[in-house]
Write a sequence for this structure.
């Protein structure tokens, strides 16, 4: 399931950024070479939440207080977001 989540995140990021040069170590937000600014991250989150529901049949909110109050942001990289989603799906 973890690889399905990671692949889904990568697929959406590639689609939104029109780039094939994205992998699990790509930074999503918060660094100079991040894929998204704050507005782009919102669009990415909306697309990803819809795709996660379609793929797993479970509503996952990535913009809720739980996600935003983490001591380490789940939006640092594709890998950190994949780990966060995996844990959320298994709660």
């Amino acid at each position: 399931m973890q690889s399905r989540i990671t692949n889904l995140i990568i697929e959406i990021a590639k689609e939104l950024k029109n780039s094939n040069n994205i992998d699990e170590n790509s930074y999503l937000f918060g660094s100079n070479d991040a894929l998204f600014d704050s507005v782009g991250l919102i669009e990415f989150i909306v697309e990803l939440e819809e795709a996660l529901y379609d793929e797993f049949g479970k509503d996952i909110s990535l913009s809720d207080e739980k996600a935003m109050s983490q001591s380490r942001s789940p939006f640092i990289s594709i890998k950190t977001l994949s780990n966060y989603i995996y844990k959320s799906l298994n709660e």
Q: What stands out?
A: The mean pLDDT is 91.
